[in-house]
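Please fill in the sequence for the structure shown.

STRUCTURE ENCODING:
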C-alpha cells in the first residue's frame, strides 16, 4: 500500500512535491489500516486534475521512473554512459542537481520509507528506513552517500550480507536493485513491492499491450468477470470468444454483439475505439484488485464515457469489490468526475489533487483542500470557473478570435 510519494527535479516537477494517500481521521471514503501504534486512515484512490501540459501526467511518470530505476538499474544501466533520468529541463542549474524520489509504503502491515537521489553519473544517495513498531520507532537500515569515502553505512547492522551487497552495487546502480536481483532475504520484499504492486497504464501508446494482456485472461479465472464487465458497460456486447491457439493475441478475440436477429461476432479491427479502450483496461484493473496493487492510470477518461470512468472510481471505493485494498491514482481533465450524475461527490476534497505551472514552467501539485471548498459546493462548476486554479488561462472565444485574426492577416 502506498502512503506518500515525494519527488523533486524530475520532469516538470522542479521543487519538491508530495502526493499523499493518508487521510484525516474523520474523512469518509477511507480504508483503516491497523499499525502497531494505532489505526491509520488511507484513501483507496486519488485523482489529479489540471490543464493540458500542467504536469499532471508527470506525477505518474515520476512514480514510474522510480519503479524503473529500482527494477532495472542493476541489470540494464551498466551499458549506459550516464544515469537515465529526466531532470527539470527549463533551468540549466537543475541538470547539475540530483533527481529526488521517496515513498512511504506498507508491506505486511509495516511501514517502510525508501528513497534515492540520482545524479548525472551516479547514485548520489539512497536510504531505507523501517518502522516495525509503528510510526514512532524508526530503524535506519541503509544510509548511502556517494560523497563519503565509504558510501554505504548500515546503522544497527540489521542488513545481512552487507559487504557483498556493497561490493556488487555499481556507483550508477541502486543497492535495492542489486538486492532484488540477488533475492536478498530482507530487502527483496521492498524490491518486490515495486515489481508487483506498482503498475502504470499510459494512454494510446500502450493500449495494444493492454488488449493483449486482457485477451490472455479471457480463458482463465478472470474470464467470467471480464465478460460480465463487457456486458454491463452498455456497449451492446453479449459475450466474447477467443480463437484456439492464440489466447494472448487481441486479433484472436471476437466480441459478440446483440442484434434483433441474434448475436453477431465482430472482427477485432471493427470494434470501436471506446470498446477497445474499455477492454484494454479490464485485465490490469481486475488483476490490480486481486493483488491489492497500486494502479496508475494516465487519462482515465480517454475514450471512456464519464459514467464509465465514474464506475471505475466506485470500484476502488467499494470494500466488497476491492477487498485486498488496491489503490488507484488517475489523471484527468474531465471535471464531471468531480461529481456524480446524482450530484453527490465521487471524491472527497482530500482525494482531489491539482497541478499548475508557474512562470518558470515548474509544476506545483496541491490538494483541493488548499482552496477551502465549501461542504455543499458544486466542485465541477467551481473548478470550471477557475475558482480552484489548475485550468487553462484562456478567455471564452479567445481561440476563435485568434483564428479569425490569423485568417485576416493571411488575406492581407
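FILLED IN BY: designer on duty
SEQUENCE:
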Amino acid at each position: 500500500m502506498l502512503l506518500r510519494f515525494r519527488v523533486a527535479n524530475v520532469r516538470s516537477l522542479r521543487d519538491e512535491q508530495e502526493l499523499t494517500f493518508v487521510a484525516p481521521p474523520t474523512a469518509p471514503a477511507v480504508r483503516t489500516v491497523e499499525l502497531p501504534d494505532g489505526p491509520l486512515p488511507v484513501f483507496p484512490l486519488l485523482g489529479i486534475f489540471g490543464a493540458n501540459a500542467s504536469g499532471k501526467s508527470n506525477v505518474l511518470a515520476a512514480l514510474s521512473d522510480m519503479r524503473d530505476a529500482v527494477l532495472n538499474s542493476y541489470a540494464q544501466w551498466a551499458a549506459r554512459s550516464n544515469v537515465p533520468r529526466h531532470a527539470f529541463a527549463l533551468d540549466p542549474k537543475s541538470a547539475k542537481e540530483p533527481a529526488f524520489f521517496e515513498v512511504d509504503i506498507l508491506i505486511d502491515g509495516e511501514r517502510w520509507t525508501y528513497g534515492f537521489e540520482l545524479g548525472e553519473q551516479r547514485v548520489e544517495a539512497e536510504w531505507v528506513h523501517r518502522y516495525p513498531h509503528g510510526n514512532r520507532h524508526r530503524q535506519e537500515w541503509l544510509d548511502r552517500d556517494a560523497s563519503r569515502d565509504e558510501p554505504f553505512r548500515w546503522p544497527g547492522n540489521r542488513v545481512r550480507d552487507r559487504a557483498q551487497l556493497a561490493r556488487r552495487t555499481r556507483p550508477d546502480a541502486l543497492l535495492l536493485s542489486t538486492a532484488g536481483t540477488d533475492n536478498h532475504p530482507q530487502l527483496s520484499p521492498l524490491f518486490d513491492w515495486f515489481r508487483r504492486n506498482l503498475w502504470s497504464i499510459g494512454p494510446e501508446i500502450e493500449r495494444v499491450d493492454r488488449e493483449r494482456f486482457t485477451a490472455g485472461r479471457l480463458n482463465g479465472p478472470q474470464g467470467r468477470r471480464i465478460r460480465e464487465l463487457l456486458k454491463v458497460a452498455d456497449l451492446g456486447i453479449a459475450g466474447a470468444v477467443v480463437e484456439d491457439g492464440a489466447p494472448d493475441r487481441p486479433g484472436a478475440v471476437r466480441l459478440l454483439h446483440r442484434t434483433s436477429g441474434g448475436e453477431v461476432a465482430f472482427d477485432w479491427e471493427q470494434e470501436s475505439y471506446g470498446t477497445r479502450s474499455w477492454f484494454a483496461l479490464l485485465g490490469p484493473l481486475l488483476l490490480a484488485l486481486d493483488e491489492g496493487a497500486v494502479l496508475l492510470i494516465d487519462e482515465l477518461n480517454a475514450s471512456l464515457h464519464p459514467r464509465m470512468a465514474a464506475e471505475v472510481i466506485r470500484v476502488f471505493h467499494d470494500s466488497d469489490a476491492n477487498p485486498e485494498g488496491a489503490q488507484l491514482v488517475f489523471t484527468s481533465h474531465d471535471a464531471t468526475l468531480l461529481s456524480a450524475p446524482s450530484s453527490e461527490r465521487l471524491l472527497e476534497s482530500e482525494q482531489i489533487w491539482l497541478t499548475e505551472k508557474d512562470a518558470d514552467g515548474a509544476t506545483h501539485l496541491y490538494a483541493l483542500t488548499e482552496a477551502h471548498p465549501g461542504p455543499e459546493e458544486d466542485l465541477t462548476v467551481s473548478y470550471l470557473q477557475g475558482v480552484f486554479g489548475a485550468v487553462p488561462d484562456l478567455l471564452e472565444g479567445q481561440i476563435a478570435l485568434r483564428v479569425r485574426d490569423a485568417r485576416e492577416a493571411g488575406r492581407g
